Amino acid sequence: MRRKTSLVLLAFAVFFAALSPLLRWYAFPRLAKVPANEYQDMVLEANNATLLDYGTMKARTVPNVTIVQTLKGNVEASKKIEKTAGRDVVVWDGLSYVRGPDGTMVSKIPERYIFDAHTQEPVHATGEMVDGDPVRRQGIEFKWPFLTKKRDYEYFDAQARITAPIHYRGTQNFRGLTVYYFEQTIPWTKVTFPKAMPVKGITPESVARTGTTRWYTTVRRFWVEPVTGAPVYGEETHKEELRGSTLLGSRDRVTAFAGHVKMREDYIRHTVNLVKSRRQLVLLMASYLPWGFLVLGALLLSLSLWLEARSRRPAGPAPAQSTEPEPVSA
Question: What is the reported pTM?
Answer without folding.
Answer: 0.87
